[in-house]
């Protein structure tokens, strides 16, 4: 195994441990409910993106949207199989697939009443940051349920690429406002990260 592969494996394990330990601490609080999560770590020119649930990371590559994460939904064949292998079940309620008729995501931090089947273990991918990588949008499903990946990139691009002073806050606000205008009543959390500074 080469050094880069070994380093990436170590980073993935560290991120996994971070998610799982956060889950343990969250559950100690005895708070009802839970949360999904998406994270990005930039290290030596690499972008390490992880998620648990339906928060998503989308990259702009020369103006074209590329999803870097996959939403963890009970409707996914592999997630459904994992849950069923643990003795749980997935069913469709009013057109939405749910774990035990309750939760619409199959991975999350918290949700103690379903913890036997709903893991906080993230999916992690490593990407090399190249010149075509412009920015990253990290957001909750409050955005993605109403705004497509490409729409998000199209909104952010003119505010953050090819200008002297990128307007990151304005870009985030514009995305939140767009989702809200389309009827989102969910939490809408958005972060935009420029990637050009991190090319090595």
Automatic annotation (TrEMBL):
Matching SUPFAM superfamilies: PP2C-like
Highest rank taxon of the organism: Eukaryota
Gene3D superfamilies named among the record's database cross-references: PPM-type phosphatase domain
CDD domains per UniProt: PP2Cc (cd00143)
SMART domains for this protein: PP2Cc
Annotated ranges, domain PPM-type phosphatase: 1-195
InterPro entries (alphabetical): PP2C, PPM-type-like_dom_sf, PPM-type_phosphatase-like_dom
Identification of the protein by name: PPM-type phosphatase domain-containing protein
Organism: Abeliophyllum distichum
UniProt lineage: Eukaryota, Viridiplantae, Streptophyta, Embryophyta, Tracheophyta
């Amino acid at each position: 195994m080469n050094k880069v592969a070994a380093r990436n494996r170590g980073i993935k394990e560290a991120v996994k441990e971070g998610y799982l330990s956060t889950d343990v601490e969250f559950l100690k609080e005895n708070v009802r409910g839970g949360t999904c999560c998406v994270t990005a770590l930039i290290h030596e020119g690499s972008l390490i993106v992880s998620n648990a649930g339906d928060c998503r990371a989308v990259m702009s590559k020369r103006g074209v949207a590329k999803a870097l994460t996959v939403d963890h939904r009970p409707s996914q064949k592999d997630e459904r199989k994992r849950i069923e292998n643990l003795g749980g079940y997935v069913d469709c309620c009013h057109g939405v697939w749910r774990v035990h008729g309750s939760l619409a995501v199959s991975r999350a931090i918290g949700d103690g009443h379903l913890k036997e089947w709903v893991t906080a273990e993230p999916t992690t991918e490593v990407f090399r940051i190249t010149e075509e990588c412009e920015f990253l949008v990290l957001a909750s499903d409050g955005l993605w349920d109403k705004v497509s990946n490409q729409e998000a990139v199209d909104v952010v691009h003119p505010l953050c690429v090819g200008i002297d002073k990128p307007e990151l806050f304005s870009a985030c606000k514009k995305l939140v406002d767009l989702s809200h205008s389309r009827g989102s009543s969910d939490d809408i959390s958005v972060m935009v990260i420029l990637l050009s500074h991190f090319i090595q």
